[in-house]
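Q: Make up one entry.
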Amino acid sequence: MRRPVGVPEEGCCPVCHGEVALTGGLVTAHGAWRMGRHGPRVTGEPCSGEGMAPEVEA
């Protein structure tokens, strides 16, 4: 199945600001991104951004 033209497969979560997969243009369930000592990492705790529209770059 092909994805519609202009619909990105990845986007930025509006809650944790991590790069996440999109389904139907909305953020999928994912672990929250946190800044660690060696850079950003995904935690085991769920992020509340599931189902929201991704952030749009300015």
User: Anything to note?
Assistant: The mean pLDDT is 84. Strands lie at 10-12, 19-23, 26-27, 31-36, 39-46. The chain has no helices and five strands. The first strand starts at residue 10 and ends at 12.
